[in-house]
Amino acid sequence: MYEFLQYQVRDAMTVDPIAISLKAKLREAEELFEIHDFNGVPVVDNQRHLLGMLTKFDLLNAFRFDAHTLVPHYEDIMEQLVETVMTRDPITVTPQLPLSRLLQKLVETRSKSLPVVEEGHRLVGIISRQDVLKALRRTTVGCEAPAS
Amino acid sequence: MTTLLYTHPACQKHDTGFGHPECAARLTAILNALGAAPFAALEWRDPSEATREQLTRIHSQSHVERILGRIPKQGHYAIDGDTIVSPHSGEAALRAAGAVCAAVDAVLQRRASNAFCAIRPPGHHAEPDRAMGFCLFNNAAIGAAHARAAYDLERVAAIDFDVHHGNGTQAAFEHDPGYFYVSTHQADIYPGTGRREERGVGNIVNVPLLAESGSAELRHAWRQDIEPALRRFQPELIVISAGFDAHYLDPLAELNFSEDDYEWLTRKILAVAADCCEGRVVSVLEGGYNLSALAASVAVHVKALMEAPRAA
User: Fold this and answer.
1) How many domains does chain A have?
2) Which domain holds residue A99?
């Protein structure tokens, strides 16, 4: 576990992750979720500045009952733009954040993954619950004395 | 005295397209339930089509012509994303409104103590000049207007326990103190109306309920808001917009009423009707999209109508 304490976000994150544009349709995002095992995809501009996060939660939220239709219509909702349903001002972390502190943040905010940005809010990575679990295992398995 | 059941085969031919929740199977489920032995005393009636005069007491002439003009010769036409019509929809809508008028005639002419109209398309979202939310003509409002125009009633109440607010009925009644409209519905879902502040000319009572509300909240609403206001109004006829989509198994909303709640509420309404208007009640089907829950809920509702207390 001591080794884990030495890790930073950049040691465990996925570098240069797939991202999506504001003007993409929800259909494209849903296809990404279908192909990859993403919980959320960062939304960026042309220079890869982070503008938001689109998560599976946001997609489900688009299907909630509302005042506009009796029945949510799949095709209509999938034609909506990412910018209409994404989470704006998402929680972000820096590559230098200790992984131990990232773990606290994931738990406190119940987030499944967080975008990693450097100065200027440029997207450099994404880090998920699974990445942290993997780092925990890698840094501890075989290194700890069995509990007595 | 008897309870009448108004329904018509045309209402089952109103085809809303594959997979649509407001489907013919709803009526099939209801009529199968009402065909069982405990309902042997129910008298079935075929309604004729509503007349233009009956429809235009609530709707504009142009609305009526527009809706009937949009009925396709084949296939489907989408009036909006929810509201789909097909070749038999025009007759179904006219028979549905006609059923409520015929039920009003029977009850006010003392040929029956009360009646249930197993009809579709439903009506309570249809505004005087706009079809929406599965609804083409506002069946309940048309029946209420018929009662006032043809029988000189001064006060007609509509009680709407569908999970969605009856924006159309409210729009038709809100400027006329001879009507009273009370609705329980889930807050903040379709169609977005039905806030407590919407009071018309003092003749509208909206009781929005939060998601997951159930039996306790319904009973509280009845005691606190609905029964006192209804008794103050002293209706000469009660029309029920009977939607059963507040049921805990319904897929289109998040209230948790049960069959027991529908039976309880029906008996409470009938008790007020017995005190105020010689038991005169006309109940009109609105929503309800889980077929077995719908059939079971309609069954207890109609059973209660058949066992209505004698007028005081």
Assistant:
1) 1
2) 2-140
Domain positions in chain B: 3-306
How long a stretch of residues is chain B? 312
Residue A78 counted as domain residue: yes
Q: Element (H or E) spanning A59, and its range?
A: helix A56-61
Does the pLDDT at position A147 exceed 60? no
| Phi and psi torsions of A124, nearest 5° | -120, -15
Give the minimum alpha-carbon distance from B190 to chain A in angstroms, rounded to a whole number: 4
Most A CBs within 10 A among B186, B190, B254, B289, hence the mutation to make, goes to B190
Output the domain CATH number for residue A86. Answer: 3.10.580.10
Report yes or no: B131 and B63 within 8 Å, Cβ to Cβ: yes
User: What chain B residue is nearest to A76 in terms of C-alpha separation?
Assistant: B81
A35 domain residue, yes or no: yes
> Which of the four pLDDT bands, split at 50, 70 and 90, describes residue A141?
confident
Cis peptide before A115 (omega within 30 of 0): no
Provide the residue type at B307 as one letter.
E
For residue A136, being part of any structural domain is answered with yes
Asked if the structure places residue A146 within a domain, the reply is no
Nearest chain B residue to A73, by CA: B81
User: Is residue B252 within 8 angstroms of chain A, CB to CB?
Assistant: yes
- Please list the alpha-helical segments (H only) found in chain B: 9-13, 24-34, 52-55, 61-69, 89-108, 139-151, 167-173, 215-221, 227-233, 259-277, 291-306
pLDDT digits (tens, 9 = 90+) for A78-109: 999 999 999 999 999 999 999 999 999 999 99
Compute the C-alpha angle B95/B96/B101, nearest 5°: 90
CATH of B3-306, one of 3.10.129.10, 3.50.50.60, 3.40.800.20, 2.10.109.10: 3.40.800.20
Query: Touching check for B134 and chain A: CB below 8 Å?
Result: yes
- Say which residue the tokens 């509302």 belong to: A66
pLDDT tens profile B170-222: 999 999 999 999 999 999 999 999 999 999 999 999 999 999 999 999 999 99
Per-position b or e across B52-72, b if 16+ CB within 10 A of its CB:
eebbbbbbeeebbeebbeebe
Is B247 annotated in the active site? no
pLDDT on residue A148: 44
